[in-house]
Fold each of these.
Amino acid sequence: MREFETDVVVVGGGASGLAAAVTAAENGAKVMVLEKANTTGGCANMAMGPLGVETRMQRERLIDISVDRAFNKFMEYSHWRSDARLIRRYLEQSAGTIEWLENMGVEFALPSKYFPASEATWHIVKPKTGKPGLRAAATMIKIMTERAEELGVKILLETPVKSIIKDQGEVIGVTASDKDGELEVYAGAVIIGTGGFGDNPDFIKKYVGLEWGKDLFSYRIPGLTGDGIQMAWDAGASKDFMTMEMVFFAPNTGGYAPIELPFRQPNLLVNLDGERFINEEVIENPVFTANAIEKQKRKLHIL
Ligand SMILES: Cc1cc2nc3c(=O)[nH]c(=O)nc-3n(C[C@H](O)[C@H](O)[C@H](O)COP(=O)(O)OP(=O)(O)OC[C@H]3O[C@@H](n4cnc5c(N)ncnc54)[C@H](O)[C@@H]3O)c2cc1C
């Protein structure tokens, strides 16, 4: 068994884990990141860019959006089922986060809208080569990873964390494994950044009520099995409401699949009983559409 000691151990090197690691290291901490996959970045390698509200770029372009308005809009959108304090904090810190990333060398394209009726809060990353677009945020991850390494953060890839170590009720570290066997990392602070559970059909069934492969076909980013959530529960964390955001890209709405492009407006959506079930005006909102589909008795028809 190998043992390590550090000030902060970060579980998962996705966007949140890397941000935590860089911030801790910038503040003088000795940091280790343990990452299950063979690369850093997690989902953000497939993303385009982060949300920002009241950013410099928005102010310069007179884009009229405030933290208060974004907060109300978001909470209304999620029917107040999201953690209001967390959302507020996320929005309040978003402009500073964009600036922090810019200072690190990340460049952004103009703030964009996610769908026509939304606000221009999407700060799509300018990739090193080519145009801003799909997977552009991989460039941001590369820069964050380089910054972490420059600050002396030790990143161990292919090192899944298994459990949280506790001593007399205090969290003091984690256990993990890699190709050479088991290891333990003792730390003053453990930060969990293992993302969601989109690759865990059991969790999806239990917490969302959908059966993957039967009534849900979604991105399954390998390894996102809710490990950190389970570890935190095992260590005594309390459970909160959790679900998945359903997203469906309707024809002609800027969705990703080119096969959609032949289907132009006006779209008429009917369920498998041939009944119209949605006001097609909202189909440009991928979440509203997915929610409406999910409410249908027979959700999917596989051709
Ligand atoms: C296709 C796609 C496009 C998206 N586009 C956008 C976008 O443009 N803008 C936006 O804001 N959001 C977007 N999102 C959502 C966004 O990417 C995620 O919300 C965000 O990246 C999550 O970051 P995270 O660090 O919390 O988790 P994750 O990205 O899930 O990272 C978790 C990391 O932890 C690791 N891990 C898991 N278990 C363990 C373990 N036991 N031990 C060690 N490591 C572990 C994983 O391998 C992974 O690297 C998109 C998501 C997808 C899938």
Amino acid sequence: MKRAIIYARVSTEDQAQHGYSLVDQIDKCILRAKEEGAEKIIHCVDEGFSGDLLARPGLTKARNLIKTATINFFICFDPDRLARKLAHQLIITDEIEKHGCKLVFVNFNWQNTSEGRLFYSLRGAIAEFEKEKIRERTMRGLRQKALQGGLTHNPDAYGYDYNQATNSLIINEREAEVYHLISSWFLDESLGYSAIARRLTSMGIPTKRGAKRWAATTVLRMLSNPLYKGELWLQRYDTVGKKNNKYLSPDEKVKVTEHPKDHRVLIKVPAIITSSTFHKQLQQAKRISRLSKSRANYLLSGLVFCGLCESAMTGTRNSHNAYYRCTKGKHCPQPYLPSKVAENAIWNEVIAMLSNKQILDGLNVSDAECYEVQVLRRQLYEGEKEYERLINLIQRGYVSLDDAEERLTSVKDRINRLNISLQSQSTKKEQDPKTFQLSTKLKSLSFKSKQRVVRSLAERIVVFPDYLVLYASIPPLVAANNCPPSGT
Ligand SMILES: [Zn+2]
């Protein structure tokens, strides 16, 4: 018994543009299948699917059948119903032929000859070209609209309201205030995304959609979205195929990629933060992602870079020793760096930096103030800033006093505690050989604490075959120019 698969497909636009109805295609295919002498006909149909993708449920069913059962004919109305991409057409064609099945198009005389292949390829190329042309036209439309300053959609972003009359974004003052709070937790307190989300949730601040619970990914997206520095990018992501992602197995899923810069369209919107704050947020986000991927047992992990090729260097070990090695592997001549050597060198440097009166003096840290006082002062300043922001939110009626009370009390407590420690520090300071005391303390730290100290000081460590360069910044809590005015 001869068996035929008939495959038909329409996308939503096709129906409008070409009048290719599904029923039409199926009828013509059945007619053709009968002409070919098929006795059993199997229908494989995709309705509302773009021809850009291989992963369509109907096509997948057909391809599986061809592999597992004896099918004599694969019948399709037109090559562009099969696929719109040349590469895909060729893949499917090969697959069909390999399994001894005959590929038949109703309105295209396909013969498995070199001429046939050429025509077939050309048709594929043209289908692809048309698709590209449509994309171009869409982009042009978007650009034109953007040039006139209008939005093409409501981005529904926290911190902004959409003004339908003018088709533009305006700042939502209360939400913008919350955004500032988030930004300062992230930059000044080095709070992670989940911690920020928890704090927002516990303060009873609703999300844009009115939900009570904040997600860490929402916070991450907000901190890394250029919208807040006034740039709304359209066409940033390549979404082709994303719609069908749910039909794909995990390893076949379409990865979301970004369009190149010149494919994107920029719309200027009012900024909530400055470019430089945004830049700092991005840097901090990069740092967090690097450090979170770093290996637990390596003190310098996430901070070490190869001086020869600028790649990152990661921890590795053989049976005897641990090393840092360039991630370019054998493509880079950088020798393995024994971790003991590197870690001792850097740690000694860190101790020297923190104990060196000249370095501290060079930063204009007043003689009377040791590192710890600076830390306390900075924390106090942050506490007071947060207190102010909270009060501001309550006054504007955005957060109720009840909801924020717990947080307010804890901030207030912290401020009090810090004030007390500051006072005791400054009464102690006369007889305090502070730099000496500091370095003894550093020597007895646990691995985790050492890692924290190194991470707070070292920006990056660049490795050359016979020396290391440590790029360090004394953190804002020590650097005088960023230091809050004393005596507050
Ligand atoms: Zn390298």
